Amino acid sequence: MDDVLLLDLAASLARRAAAAIEAVRRAGFVVDRKSDESPVTEADHVAEALIVEGLRAATPGIPVVAEEEVAGGLVTAACPAFWLVDPLDGTRDFAKGRSEYAVCIGLVREGRAVLGALALPATGEIFGGLLGAGAWKEDAASRRPIQARRPPPEGLTVLASRHYADDPRMGPFLAGRPVAERRSASSALKFCRVAEGVADLYPRFGPTMEWDSAAGQALVEAAGGAVTLLDGAPLRYGKPGWRNPDFICRGA
Question: Is 74 annotated as a binding residue?
Fold first, then answer.
């Protein structure tokens, strides 16, 4: 299966998972707690089972690292190629009735996120990106190419994590930069907005896991943007414990 077909597979599974998440939301659900006290719901488990089953059936030679399986104690060693799955990124907001949550499916090769599919269930948007082949957005109207933008003359639109918006590192980082607007948002939705050129900068200070960022990084970089560490080095995958350091997502 070539990379275009792999992206189509990931996008199809993200779309199906988004529909399953919305079905759970409409039916009502209970919020449980994992061992680290982070929230988890039936929607997380239903979406992950759907995605993992689909990936393993279609690509049996590519291991899958999925958030809830890891939380349940399934240990998968990093290898030259593997899928990273966050079935419901932004569970806290989902549980609170907000609309900023996402489905994230990314493929990693040799430590680099090479393709990503993301779904925003509340809005019906699907995004896909493949390094070297570009990025696209699909909604009720159409599927169309997207591209990260150069910052406009009036200044940067900066996105901050809703739950880490007051991080004391944000002010010094933005000092001296021309900021036109600063917004708080949750989940991998922020990668999508940078990729489609409606925001310019997403500095991430605070803990994230590799499944939180792989699909979004591939999308942004396929759209002409970049995701790097604070020193400009690339954000890589297959790290011990699947934990990310702080990173910066920027447009063109």
Answer: no
Non-local (6+) Cβ contacts of 163 within 8 A are 92, 186, 206
Alpha helices in 140-241 (DSSP H): 170-174, 189-195, 210-222
The reply to whether 189 sits in an annotated binding site is no
Is there a binding annotation on residue 32?
A: no
Residues in the chain: 252
Q: Is 89 annotated as a binding residue?
A: yes
Q: Is 2 annotated as a binding residue?
A: no
pLDDT at 35 over 90: no
- DSSP one-letter string for 7-27: HHHHHHHHHHHHHHHHHHHHH
Place of tokens 């090769």: 109
Nearest to 87 by CA among 69, 74, 102, 98: 102
Domain ranges of the chain: 3-144, 156-250
In tens, the pLDDT along 91-133 reads 888 888 899 999 999 999 999 999 999 999 999 999 999 999 9
Could you tell me the fold of the domain covering 3-144?
A: Fructose-1,6-Bisphosphatase; Chain A, domain 1 (3.30.540)
On whether 91 is known to bind a ligand per the annotation, the reply is yes
Query: Class of the 156-250 domain?
Result: alpha beta
Q: Would the annotation count 76 as a binding residue? A: no
